[in-house]
Every structure is written in C-alpha cells, then in structure tokens.
# Entry
Amino acid sequence: MGAADREPAEYRGCPLTAVRVALVSSRAFPMPHWHDYDLPLLAAELAGRGATVEVVEWDGDTPVAWASYQAVVLQSPWSMWTDLTGFARWLRAREDDGTRLLNPVDTVLLGSDKRYLLRLGDQGVPIVPTTLVEESDAAYLKGLFPDLAGPRPTLVAKPIAAGGALGAREFTAAELPELIAHLRAAGPSIVQPYIAAIDIHRELGVVMVDGSISHAVTKAPLLVPGQPVRELHPDPQPYPGLTAQEGRVIHQTYAALRAMLTNEPLSVRLDFVVDPASPSGLLLLEAEMVAPVKFFPLFPAECANLAEAILARAAA
Ligand SMILES: Nc1ncnc2c1ncn2[C@@H]1O[C@H](COP(=O)(O)OP(=O)(O)O)[C@@H](O)[C@H]1O
Ligand SMILES: [Mg+2]
# Structure
C-alpha cells in the first residue's frame, strides 16, 4: 500500500478511532529477565487518547500489514540484537512498503552500529575513548593498556552492534591473550577503557523526544565484577536537575547526531558516563536510537507527552 492509499488520519477533534498505532516488540527478548515496562504505560496513554493500539512482533510468524498503520513505533524489537541480518531485511522491507516507521530507518540503522560513536567524536562530541578493532592485532591491543590508570585499569570490549551490554566483556592487562581470542571470535568490536567514574558518579541517560530533552535519569553501573546477570538499566533514578554545562553537552551531542540524519527521530536516549574529571563532565557512551528504554514508570507525564508526539506524527 502506498502513502496515498492510507486512510486519512486526524488528530484533535477528528475520529481518532481511525488512528491505528503498532508498538513493535519481539517474540522473545534476548535475556529472559528483560522486560518492557514502558510498553503498557505508553499503550494506555495512546488508547486513552482514542487510538487503536496493537502490540506486534517484528519477528512473528503471522504476516503483518505494516503499512496499514498510521504509525509504527519501534518499542522493544530487542530480539534484533541477536538477528541483525533479519532485522536489516525487515527494515528494508518497511522502506519498500512505505511503512510510517518512527524512528525513521536511517536513524535505526545508524543506531545499530556503534561506529557512530567515532563519527560523533570526530565532530567534537566528548565520547568515551573508543577504538574500533576489526583485526585482532596482539601488539596493537597490548599498546592500549599502558595508558590505563586508576582504580579499575581494564579494557571493555563490545560488539559494534549490541544492546543491554550483550557480549560486553572486561579485561585486565594480564588477560591480553583472552582479549585477543575474544576479539578474534567476536568480529568487529569497539574497545574502551573502563571509565571508573561511573562507579562513583553513575551514568546519565537523557531521553530526547522530537529533538528536545524530555527527561533524564541516572543509572547504576552495569558491569559489576562477579555479577554475570546484567539488569537492563540498574536502579534508574529521576535526575531533574541538569546543569547548564550538562545541557550544553547534551544539545551539542544531539545536534551532531541530528546532522547525520535526514529526518528528526521521534525519540533517542543519550547515555553519558558522568566524569567530573573530564573537561566536559560527561562522556558519551551510547546514543540509543533503535528502541530506547524511557523509564516511564518514573515519568507518567513524559509518557503522555510521547503519546501526543506519536499521534501528532500519525496525523501529519
Ligand atoms: N567503557 C565503559 N566504562 C564503564 N562502564 C561501561 C563501559 N562500557 C560499558 N559500560 C557499562 O555497560 C553498560 C552497557 O554498555 P553500552 O555501551 O551502553 O552498550 P549497550 O549498547 O550494550 O547498552 C553501560 O550502561 C555501562 O554501565
Ligand atoms: Mg547501553
């Protein structure tokens, strides 16, 4: 179905029952303890505004008429982290069939490959120092260690495409052989020093909606020695008091990201390590652009705002 064939959708004053919104989830999440706590809250806000909301699995068995929805929101398609090829195929098919996908496909593709961090770093965004490793060269990797200092002098290796710390592992200098073997098996990865400031100052997650700051949380560190089960976002706490300096770094980061994209994403989450010793005070760890967790159990008003933003886009 092409764009011209869709039912007209209107918002505020017109028949909202005509507005069908798909919240895209997964048949099963990569880890059994992952939950999407935002989904029922967002669904309720949309339904409360008269929309028909359907939760649809991107990887389900039943064919779905994706283009028949006025808005398709990538809510928790997190099984894609274990089937990136299948998900890329699904995205291409959504482009071909004219699905009204929020976020747009270019945003989702950019967010599916952590090499965007290096591009943002090149644009002057303060990022966690990041090295791309495509070939696991022993001498080169050894050379990354002597710069490490501080209370936790380790390197974190992460696949270039991952969420929820899937596949992330930490290595000491004594574990260089294990790091080399790990990277050979893992394929293209990024390697970063462990930023120990996170253990004291936590991580700052900033949810952006339609290009503006919606809300912010701090989160506990996720890589905890001896704790193999990793919570998705441990101990989120509302953080209402963004400083002017933090605001500057957030806007600088978002502007650099936005410059890489054709259209405004509906929503992204910018995650920074809070590091008061660094010149900017914040170091970007990740820009979650595929399907960011938004901590709506802590932010009911912001959940309502996102529902409004979705319906405004559905009606556009
Ligand atoms: N370089 C690092 N220094 C300190 N903590 C890190 C580092 N890299 C990852 N972590 C921890 O692991 C978590 C997941 O890493 P992240 O880069 O956000 O990858 P993912 O895309 O898998 O969520 C972070 O929220 C943070 O707690
Ligand atoms: Mg993360």
